[in-house]
Amino acid sequence: MGRVAYGIALVVLTAATACGSGGESRADSASPPPGGSAATSSAPVRTAGSWPTYHGANDRAGFAAGFPAPSALGDAWTARLDGAVYGQPIVVNGTAYVGTENDTVYALDLATGRQVWQRRLGTPVPRSALPCGNIDPLGITGTPAYDPGTRTVFVATETTGGRHTLVALNAADGRVRFTRGLDVVAGRDPTAEQQRGALAVAGGRVYVPFGGLAGDCGNYVGYVAAARTDGGKEVASYVVPTRRMGGMWAPSGPAVVPSGDVYVAVGNGASLSGAYDGSDSVLRLSADLSRRLSYFAPKNWGSENSEDQDLGSTGPLPLPGDRVLIAGKTGDIYLLDGRDLGGVGGQRASLHGCVAFGGMARNGSSVYLPCEEGLQRVDVTGGSGLRRVWRAPGNVKGSPVVGGGAVWTLDTGAGVLHALSESDGRSLAARRIGEVSRFASPTLAGSLVLVPTMRGVTAISVR
Length: 463
Known about the structure:
Blueprint: E1 11-12, E2 24-25, E3 63-64, E4 73-80, E5 90-92, E6 95-99, E7 104-109, E8 115-120, E9 145-147, E10 152-159, E11 163-170, E12 176-181, E13 193-194, E14 200-202, E15 205-212, E16 223-228, E17 235-239, E18 255-256, E19 262-266, E20 281-285, E21 292-297, H1 301-306, E22 317-319, E23 323-327, E24 332-337, E25 343-344, E26 349-352, E27 361-363, E28 366-369, E29 376-381, E30 385-391, E31 401-403, E32 406-411, E33 416-421, E34 427-432, E35 443-445, E36 448-452, E37 456-462
Parallel strand pairs: 3-31, 21-25
Antiparallel strand pairs: 1-30, 2-12, 4-37, 5-6, 6-7, 7-8, 9-10, 10-11, 11-12, 13-15, 14-15, 15-16, 16-17, 18-19, 19-20, 20-21, 22-23, 23-24, 24-26, 27-28, 28-29, 29-30, 31-32, 32-33, 33-34, 35-36, 36-37
């Protein structure tokens, strides 16, 4: 194990192929934005300099084509906001949109960091008012998503009383277009639910996943809700059929493929043996959430449930050729058939050695995973194999994105941004950022890297 620039060590490895509706209020009508006309809602489309959803697109690939190579990094700007930022900043038309744990949304000029507008959406919930958890206060946690058809920024808030609300904001001026209640599962305790996963917009719907608080306390169950982007009152949902838990909490949120099908990861559930309860899984759902089309769960799902060692800690990552990758808390990486996820024990291949938390990224069939052992590159080979190519040191394990021949990731403990070579993992550059959350993931837009911090957003210039 040799030493490379910036004091980062690198391990190069090889491995053999292995295998209901909610309440709503309306601040104003869902009319077209000023200067625009009504348009059909569609999925966000990546253009140069844009990043309209978590990891840039609904496949959650986190790849920015045309991003500059990191020959040098500099400080561009820092925006001090009114609370911690856990989600990724999204970027559309030269403006970055950010939600804070103080339930405030900011629009920032991408070039300067200057505030364009801000909108306070409620009072967040203090930790003392929750049965468990690790965010204080708890406001906007999941990454927002932008709808190009209605020019709307969608965020999910948690406010006093444990209420969860979808808020649609006019991207130009922050005006509230409409709200929808998201506490749609009857008989559960909303104060025990948490909206941590990223939102996704596709096919005229905005998808919002729910899990539990850190500690898995209280009477909650995992579900994903879907509201209409045009302001319609319907809120559909898919609820994990377990007695309790089964949270959809991975920071990357749902992945949506061109067919409209929705992939989600589910955490540990209540059943430990006997009939399978739908937990510890990857699910493929219909676009309207009315049907579970297929699922995957490890053979030992019962014992994983009993030990809180499940797949829910990362979101599914669609790959070329109708494949899906997932990794979780046990250290196993699974390659799945995206058309038929395989049921219990039905993976196409597996590889051990990555306890993963956060969001993955990819460039083609090379996948970069946020492993507790250190960020790893794993290649999908021959259509059905997995090969580990390199591993970064254990302190460099943040949720990565890819651009300019580099993997951008964080040492979340030290608050340092790292650019690692895609090919061999060697350090290309590094920059101290300051305190960040455990699941913080950078945004690549133009020639800037935007990093969400516990105080706001820091922009690093790449040249």
